[in-house]
Amino acid sequence: MKFAVGQSVARFEDRRFVTGTGCYSDDVMPGAGLRVAFLRAPYAHARLQSLDYSAAASAPGVRLVASQADLDADQVGDIHCQLQIENFDGSKMPMTTKPAMVRDINRYAGDIVAMVVADTQTQANDAVELIDASFEPLPAVTDVYAAMADGAPQLYDCYKNNRVFDWHAGNHAAADAAFEQAEQNGWQRVDIDVVNNRVVINSIETRPMLAGPGDAPDSLEIWCGTQGPVGLAEQIAAALSLPQDKLRVRTPDVGGSFGFKIFLHPEQLCLAWAARRLGALVRWQQNRSEAFVADLHGRDNRSQASAMIDENGRIHALKVTAHANMGAWLSNFSTYIPTMSGCRTLTTVYDIPATSLRVIGVVTNTPAVDAYRGAGRPEANYLMERLMDHIAIFTGKSRVAIRKTNMITAAQIPYTMPVGGSIDSGDMPALLDTATKKADLAGFAARRQDSQSRGQLRGIGYGMYLEQCGGGTDSGVSIEFSADGQIVLHAAQQCNGQGHRTTLTQILSDRLSYDADKITVLQGDSARGLRGTTGGARMTSILGSATAEAAAKIITAARPYAAAYLEAADEAVQFSDGLFVAPHTNRTIDLDSLVEQLAVPGQPHVLNMAHSYETAGATYPYGCHIAEVEIDPASCDITIVKFTVVDDFGLVINPMMLAGQIHGGIAQGVGQALYEHVVYDVSGQILSGSFMDYTMPRADHFPQLDIHMHNTPCQNNILGIKGSGEAGAIGAPQAVVSAVCDALGIQHVDMPVTPLKIFNIFHQN
Q1: pTM > 0.90
Q2: d(CA 495, CA 491)
Q3: What tens digit of pLDDT does each residue of 733-750 get?
Q4: CA count, 13 A, side-chain hemisphere, 2
């Protein structure tokens, strides 16, 4: 069967998944290998005084017990942050590294103190209990404001007041001048301070891993979930002082990632080293309790914004200061997320001439924070939308009117943002008009009255968003033909549940008019050398475009062979609907047959094609989320009764899959707005360390989502598409919080808006 771009196609991957024949990391060689357990630090901040694991080492079935001292003896490298930030004064931020296990001081509860490798999981778990570790507890701090205060516990000597960096972007001189001239211009100042709460990423598959000897002498093979195995292989090989060609990372199916499986984690270094030390296969299946205390977390910052507005509510100048919680150590991309990633859409869909941004990175006694779906852009969009609601209240104008007053118009596009890139396409005001019509804004008053008649409080909320994503390049695709006409497409990026195989198959089938059943997409093998990372909603814009261009090159390469068969001149032969045609004759040959004719046993096919693609710029998806909620004053429960979305994603490859991406993103955004929150006590112990204490969004929390498109083609890639994978999580939180505030008649409440917060608002007087 042949598929076309724009056609709704059920995901090819799903038959394997729903029939239980998918292959995730823990399905590789099931039951084989030694088992691993970790001793984790019980304190959020402590000095490791002594460690005695002699009893554990002699326990039944134990093959290895190790601490950081053993890794140091083998000169195993630490985990390194990949980006050194330059401070506003031109100085470079001091760099610190993270050992796989505690070297002297542990800085968060859950840090690895020792590891045990044993024949069975029970033996490994029992042996961990025999390790005698002695600590000197130290004061801990988990809040960014508290961490920066004089006298706060210090995590590192090189970070005074726990400040890692102080980074600036935008035009500070213009913003300062505008603020100074505010009085003479008759402008007024609006200030906000909002929390973007910390969340645990909680992918359905945790982070299992296997490591063992490879086929070649002194080589190592690793199986684990990644968002691209080459980058992880490079880091592990460097840490083990192992030549790159001696280490192979393979990624089978991945049960969700959302950012955090890009990065090197301490457990991965531990297992890789242990497999080398023992010369045996070792495996670790992370349980959910470990995930809460040891995984990288998302979000967690405090942002302050000040805007100078005129009598119409138009913003003439904006100053933003964000305090980003980096956690206890600097993960691979952690410094990039609140700075260079977060700033790219600081002013979102609004035309604000003078803008400045300051980001202060702060270490605390909590797990490290790195990329999570949207990676800095959700935080910026949330701040801007809360600011718009504040301005509406300040001026007494409607929230829709304030947004329109400040919005970039279609006539201004391409629009160069004051901080970030250039928006290439779109019509934001028209999209907002479409959204308010689809949400039936005109009928809201009647719906509110109906809710009131039932003793319920009803509110409506708005969340515009703009993302910059989907730009750049990677190693692309490698397309290989076999003698029987089958195609194998090797892709540089790794699917984590998005449906890469379906998307790439659909594009290749469309461009070659080729039977989709003959196309296989393979990913997840560092030995292939295709370097790429899934993230930033970039797969289709980069790999999809690479596939489309590769298909065109294949047709060009095949044309001379088709011409020879058809006894026609090369330039005369045309290709249409899978057929090469000699004009003015009835002679044709289909591509499938030509592929089979050109195959030479034992030789690479002449039509094989490797191709990479670099976009002309990023994509700028944008949209509007409109939420309606009802609040029960008796129970303080919040119910989302209506949720309308209008997005601009450019050309749509597969509408059905796109809807799935939007649904998933909205669920995560609503989860952050209403349910999810990592809470620590004063000593740095997590209080929300299981699904008994940490609420995840469920299907019954949502109404039927009403999703619409208002698409304008992207000008920066050949497919005209815009990234969609992160948009739902970027737009949903502010719409929900806006609706809650409207229902309660208040200006602001921080996420997550729990029933307890509603209760306290009702009883605050």
Answers
A1: yes
A2: 10
A3: 999 999 999 999 999 999
A4: 12
